[in-house]
Each structure stands twice: as structure tokens, then as C-alpha cells.
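Form P-L/3: holo structure prediction, ligand iron/sulfur cluster.
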Amino acid sequence: MGETDRLLEVIRGRNAKTVGLQFPVGLRTKAVELAREIESRAGVTCLVSADPSFGACDVAEMPVDLIVHLGHAPMPHLRYNRVFFYDLPGPPLASLAFIDAAEPLLPNRVGLLTTTQFRHWLPPIKDHLERKGHVVRIGEPDRRVAYAGQVLGCDYHTATVVEKDVDGYLYIGTGDFHPLGVAILVDKPVIVADPERGTARDLKEVRDRVLRQRHAAIARAHDAQTFGILVSKKIGQERMDMALGLKALAEKHGRQASLFLMDLVAPDLLQGYRVDAWVNTACPRIAIEDVLQYKEPMLTPQEFEIVLGEREWTDYRFDEIRA
Ligand code: SF4
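OUTPUT (holo model):
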């Protein structure tokens, strides 16, 4: 049964009259077509959420009977209210050429990692590498990720759980952010096999560049007196307890800290406040990927601890939201 048929059954079973649709940016091109198909086949009214949707951490409330969230796997530890996760796995694995491009860069014992989109490729890639003599591990998930070998930009459990059994990692995917977290968390090579470009690359240079940027952000915030601690309203990004703990820590060290509650965190929404530096407890990508867009330094919680002298730079940790 296709995903749309499965969805139509759920709509009928719940007797839903209104359906909300949430798309990540990359799937917006499907929005109008899917809304029209559901309306005509189920006799419901669809409401497309035009707010950005970044992950299963970010399922916005909508005034509808059923919310349909596309393109992300649910986070098992969250209690979603009337949400249908519409599974959209990527295309079938057409060629192993990009794996062969990565193979010379790999150590013997390797951990396989990917995003939900390519998760169904991991078993054939594992077989392929084992035939070439590698020992391959695919880490079991924790409570925040749904599938073995899946990593999120905020949860690297499937990498760290096999850390002792591997000498490096092979990440299957297109961007740098997910494997970057692994490269910073675990001191072992991370090779990216990119199925779109058909190429492979070692992430070491990106890792070193990002660590230099983080060091610079910490140095810029060193003498800051007033901090703004960002707390997310999103269901899977909210870390209020952590934010309260950081505020207390700042005050213990004679600095001021105020809490800022936000849904979307964006540079223009933070303008005008009398704050010397920000501390981000929302999605970890915000501080790392968007660092150059913010006027004031944007720190992760662990970096804030370094600024306050509670943690050493040599004990740098990549920020994760572990369930
Ligand atoms: S990395 Fe950010 S957007 Fe992605 S799942 Fe984690 S909190 Fe959500």
C-alpha cells in the first residue's frame, strides 16, 4: 500500500474533515499536487503550512483534525498529537560507484551512517563493503532517532554506540552538517560518500575550519557581560531546564543572562536587544551553520560553559539533544 493510500485510511478512520500538510523546503514542489489529491480522494479540506519545517522536532500545531508531516521520520520519544508521518524514502540504490570512490579512504572497520532518506541503502552497502574485506557496523538507534544508522544534526547515538568497534565512519548523504557532528564528537576519520555528485571526501578540513570558527566565537564572547539564552517553542527542540541551568551558571559567575522564547530562530528576529552574546539551546545547527549571519557571537551550551570557565577547550563537545 502506498503512503497516500495509508493516509486516506487514517483520514477515514479518524473521520477527519480538515487536514494540515507540513513540508520541508525541499518538498514544497509537491505541496499543491498532494493537497489537491487528498482533497479530491478524501473529500476533506487541506491546509498547507507555509512556515518552514526543519525536522520531526518541528511539528507545528495546526487548527485541523489531522496533521500530515512529510519527509522526516518521527522521533520515538516525543508524544505527537494527531500527526501522520508520511514516509518518503529516497530513490532506490542505482549504483555503488560512489561507495567505490570512498572505499580507498576507509579504514578496515567502519561504521555506516546516513539520514532517513537513504536508510534503505545501508544493508546493500554493508554487504558490498564486507565483500571487499571491511568489518561494517550499523549502530542501533536510541529514543530520538527511528532507524539503525540514522543520524540527526542533534543526535549521533548511532555513531557513538559503535565507536569502540570501528576505526572510522562512512556517511552516505549530501551535506556536511550531519557527518561534521560525528567528526567533532569522535576523534576518527569521517568519509562522506555523496550519491548526488558520485564522489567521496574526507571531512577533516571542514571539521578543522568549523572548530577554528567555534574557537573564535568563544574568544569574542569571553568578555561579554549580558547573554541572551534562546529557548525554542518547538516540540523536539525545547530545552527549558538546560536554559534555566545556564542562566544560573552565568549568574554564579557574575554575568547577566535573560531567557528568550522563540519559534523560528533567525538573525533579524534577534536585532535590537541589548545582548553581548547569544547562547542557543534550540537546534544545534543554528550556532554552527548560521554563525556568520549573527552580529553577536552565537554559542552552543557547551561553548558557554567554556566562556564561563566551567569547561576546558580541550574538552570541547558538539552540542546534541539526546532523549
Ligand atoms: S538537527 Fe535541528 S532540525 Fe534537525 S532534528 Fe535536530 S533539532 Fe531538529
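COMMENT: The first helix runs from residue 3 to 14.
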